[in-house]
Amino acid sequence: MKTALSIAGSDCSGGAGIQADIKTMSAIGVFGMSVIVSVVAENTSRVISIEDVSPKLIADQIDAVFEDIEVDAVKVGMLSTPACMAAVAEKLRQYRPRHIVIDPVMYAKNGCPLMQESSIGTLIDTVIPLATLLTPNIPEAEKIAGMPIKTVDDMKTAARRIAGLGARAVLIKGGHYIGDAEDILYDGSAFYPYVRRRIDTKNTHGTGCTLSSAIASYLALGESLPGAVERAKEYVTGAIEHALDIGRGCGPTHHFYRFYSQQGGTL
Ligand SMILES: Nc1ncnc2c1ncn2[C@@H]1O[C@H](COP(=O)(O)OP(=O)(O)O)[C@@H](O)[C@H]1O
Ligand SMILES: Cc1ncc(COP(=O)(O)O)c(N)n1
Q: HSE on the CB side for 114, CA within 13 Å?
């Protein structure tokens, strides 16, 4: 069985972070593993508090996985501080997994910050150059590329700039855009658009986590990068279509909708 590792934060409400990643990996059919970098007390409406795991325990978790199990792809999510970033980056440089999909998480869907403002320099200098694919949403791409993004052409310019910072490929996600949900992949030479109609829902907690871990899963299964993004886009669109209207804020994406519908069950 192919394996994928999520290095990210824990969302106790189960919609984003490590929990979304492992649900996605399981639904796609790879063996999911997790290195917890931060524990976030959050739900669909708010973040109550965040506590980071010590750099030593982050490093030890990564050692525990890599010394024992072949890792076919890694997904990196929330890294809140320069110390977390340095611990993860050092170990990724040591183990050099083939696929490293990095989602540079900065805010939760309800607007609460998940990355300290002062971490942006370390993100750019230390983390981004490790990405075989970086998957910023539009506000994150604006911060990293240092430019406003209002059009699809701006998305392309920002993707080029971010590739110039050392990411091998960049997928700018259009969930925060107006109109269709259009994402643009830049692989260093060509652009690939991925377009679906926008689903009218507030229940988008965990969409970015779901997409990046789906891409890592399909890369682990041997898909090409454009193919993995296409299949992951299909997966996240279905997970948003069947998102659960639970909680008082932005409800979570739903991962087992295909299983339930095949069993004739209700969602
Ligand atoms: N309302 C929506 N309808 C359809 N697709 C969406 C919607 N919102 C987000 N997406 C898609 O979900 C994925 C995650 O994007 P986005 O929500 O921008 O990421 P993030 O969670 O990092 O903010 C992208 O493929 C985006 O196009
Ligand atoms: C621990 C953690 N990691 C990431 C996100 C962002 O989730 P998304 O951008 O996918 O809604 C989150 N809310 N919590």
A: 27
122 C-alpha to ligand 1 centroid (Å): 26
Q: What distance in Å separates the CA atoms of residue 245 and residue 201, rounded to the nearest whole number? A: 9
What spacing in Å lies between the alpha carbon of 65 and ligand 2's midpoint?
A: 23
Residues labelled as active-site residues: 173, 204, 206-209
Give the residue whose CA is nearest to atom 8 of ligand 2: 206
Structure confidence by residue, pLDDT tens digits, 11-26: 999 999 999 999 999 9
Q: What are phi and psi of 16, to 5 degrees?
A: -130, -165
pTM of model > 0.95: yes
Binding site membership of 198 for ligand 1 (Cβ less than 6 Å)? yes
Q: Where are the domains of the chain?
A: 3-263
Q: What are phi and psi of 117, to 5 degrees?
A: -50, -40
The CATH code of domain 3-263 reads 3.40.1190.20
Measured in Å, how far apart are the chain's first and last C-alpha atoms? 28
Interatomic CA distance for residues 213 and 53, integer angstroms: 21
Examine the predicted complex and report whether its ipTM is higher than 0.90. yes
